[in-house]
Write a structure and sequence with these properties.
This is Jacalin-type lectin domain-containing protein. The protein is mainly beta. It has helices spanning 13-30, 52-62; strands at 37-38, 49-50, 79-86, 96-100, 106-114, 118-126, 132-134, 138-139, 146-151, 158-167, 176-185, 189-194, 199-204, 210-217, 221-229, 234-241, 251-255, 261-269, 273-281, 287-289, 293-294, 301-306, 313-322, 330-339, 343-348, 353-358, 364-371, 375-383. Strands 5, 6, 7, 8 and 9 form a 5-stranded antiparallel β-sheet that branches. Strands 18, 19, 20, 21 and 22 form a 5-stranded antiparallel β-sheet that branches. A 4-stranded antiparallel β-sheet has the order 3-15-14-4, with no helix packed on it. Helix 1 (13-30) packs across helix 2 (52-62). The protein is globular, with a radius of gyration of 23 Å.
Amino acid sequence: MDTNWMSEPRSSTLFLKGLGEFLDVECKKNANVAGEIKCPCVKCVNNLWVTRDKATEHIICNGFMEGYHTEHLEVGKDVAQVGIWGTKSKGSPHNHWSFRLENNHKLKKITIDHGDLIFSLKFTAEDDRGITHDSKKMGGWNGGNEESEVTFDFDEEIIGINGTVGVSTGTYAGYTIISSLSFITNKTTHGPFGQTTGTPFEVPWNRGSFGGFYGLAGYYIDGIGVYLKASQETARVGLWGTELSTGPHYRWSFCLEENYKLTMITIDHGDMISSLTFTSEDCMGSTHVSNKAGGYNDGTAISEVNLSWDEEIIGINGTFGASTSTCDGKTISSLCFITNKRSHGPFGHVTRTGFSVPWSKGSFAGFYGTASYYINSIGVYVRATM
């Protein structure tokens, strides 16, 4: 958790915002059964249980106790945001929706109101005492003509979603919406719900990573994204392509070190992606070049993506399918790197099955996948931002 706010004047907006986020975490993780937390102000010195409001008052008036520094606050950011698919326009606050699993809660049921598109979603979670908690309904200013329920077994969890993005028709025509959704678990695929028309999307993730959903909604579900729990500050999203399991030499990984910035990607390509190499720069200006991923076979062209000092990757898209070689299974046939400034690519040959995954600015932490003669698959490391 960023602690720079602690050195700001206690009446400043930055201090009050940081204090609010800190107390959110304290109340979530360290509150007693009465909802009280230990107050870390100068007078209470972490010995007195008080309400959140009282802790706010004490800290603003008295300041933090001496020695209460960063080590007490490394509990903040543990969730990464991946998406949104659908409309990305930012409407008024009532158009934003969010469902996030609390600690020790498990998703028990999803209620989907649908017809030729997804009208609304509702989520039911169960805590470790067996008590259920229903979210509010997301979307649904218009109702569909069918309501379906997905009920999860005790040992079942979501490990991915797929769906389609379409355009609404009828009375409220012309909106970019989620036209269909499927929920993929470690046991089965639930769905599709809605009508599978429009642009498809798919995002898998590691078992144990699911943290909730968020998006935009009004008459319908306009957009959807995923909260993923970060393990050691990063979460893994993907793979797209094929995952070969014939040995560790087929696996590759590039993860940015702390305070490093990605400055260049070198792509060896032809009718598919042969190899990838990543160059990063540390805070002292020294460059670091990764090992080459893939490339047992060379492509016909080498391209470089050079990122400016204020440019960062916020998404990728591409295609994958069977390789022209008889011995390498599915491969990544094209890749495009999307930044906060532009799209770089596509590199390779845009054919076969497509994929696209965006993420929040400031989240990118690296790539990983499988490779041999070519890049067989790719996934993304994303950092927790919440």
